[in-house]
């Protein structure tokens, strides 16, 4: 073969080198992109891991809180049933008393669910408690007071107290007659940082003090004390009067919900 045919073909060599250079660039770009993708995936995996850990912790807290509230609610129900059956006047009377108290407890829980179980407005608690005993077209209640947030323990105690007051007045008090009325008023003493709430019945039958303290009366007094409050029950002939004074700090406290512990 002639010597000229054995020499490298410069055009082919240049093309090959250009091809290798292009492949080199492409490979570097691919590696760079792979590195970026790997970094993103690792970062995302780290975020996902933290999210799972946070989710697990939140789920644990929710389960623990639910367990606590179920136990507390069952204890409240047991106390209501036990005390309602004590000195029972009859099966029907006991059944109505238990149903009324459990329904009041349920309505209070409904309000707490709307506030993520932490608190509710006092005005909403009052209106929810009296709703089953009132006529929305011709209300027999006159309600007045600033709307303040109260913690779950206070929501339960006040709701159940108002249920007892409503039950008593529809049976024996002002709301047992068509012309009877109830004034439900609360104020805040800024100097002492305390709540002053009054329930005043008017235009009802002549009032006489009861011959003995009923379970409802003891429940009202006990629930007030559990909120560090002072409860007064008065029986002037013109109408029954309930007064409740309590520090705002106790109403805003995240203490456990009250379980009626009635001393006979």
Radius of gyration: 36 Å
Give the overall silhouette. elongated
Helix percent band = 40-55%
Largest sheet, in brief, is:
5 strands, mixed
Average pLDDT figure: 77
What name does CATH use for the topology of the domain at 83-251? Heat Shock Protein 90
Architecture of the domain at 83-251 in CATH?
Answer: 2-Layer Sandwich
- Spans where pLDDT lies below 50 across 5 or more residues: 1-10
Describe this structure in words.
With 264 residues, this protein is α+β, with helices and mostly antiparallel strands. The protein has a domain at 83-251: Heat Shock Protein 90, CATH 3.30.565. The protein has helices at residues 10-85, 91-114, 122-130, 152-171, 215-226, 248-251, and strands at residues 119-121, 141-144, 149-151, 181-189, 194-202, 230-234, 241-247. The strands form 2 sheets. It has a 5-stranded mixed β-sheet with strand order 2-4-5-7-6. The protein has a two-stranded antiparallel sheet with strand order 1-3. Helix 2 runs antiparallel to helix 3 and helix 2 (91-114) packs antiparallel against helix 4 (152-171).
């Amino acid at each position: 073969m002639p010597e000229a045919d054995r020499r490298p073909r410069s055009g082919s060599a240049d093309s090959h080198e250009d091809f290798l250079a292009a492949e080199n660039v492409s490979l570097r770009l691919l590696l760079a992109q792979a590195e970026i993708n790997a970094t993103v995936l690792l970062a995302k995996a780290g975020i996902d891991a933290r999210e799972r850990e946070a989710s697990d912790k939140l789920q644990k807290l929710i389960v623990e809180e639910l367990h606590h509230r179920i136990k507390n609610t069952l204890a409240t129900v047991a106390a209501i049933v036990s005390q309602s059956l004590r000195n029972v006047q009859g099966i029907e009377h006991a059944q109505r008393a238990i149903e009324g108290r459990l329904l009041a407890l349920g309505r209070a829980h409904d309000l707490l669910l709307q506030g993520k179980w932490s608190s509710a407005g006092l005005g909403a608690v009052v209106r929810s408690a009296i709703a089953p005993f009132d006529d929305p077209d011709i209300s027999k209640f006159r309600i007045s007071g600033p709307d303040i947030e109260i913690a779950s323990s206070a929501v339960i105690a006040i709701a159940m107290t108002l249920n007892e007051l409503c039950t008593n007045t529809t049976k024996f008090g002002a709301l047992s007659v068509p012309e009877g009325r109830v004034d439900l008023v609360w104020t805040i003493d800024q100097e002492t940082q305390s709540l002053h709430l009054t329930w005043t019945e008017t235009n009802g039958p002549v009032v006489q003090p009861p011959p003995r303290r009923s379970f409802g009366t003891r429940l009202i007094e006990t629930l007030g004390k559990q909120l560090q409050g002072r409860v007064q029950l008065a029986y002037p002939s013109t109408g029954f009067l309930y007064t409740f004074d309590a520090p705002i700090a106790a109403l805003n406290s995240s203490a456990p919900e009250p379980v009626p512990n009635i001393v006979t």
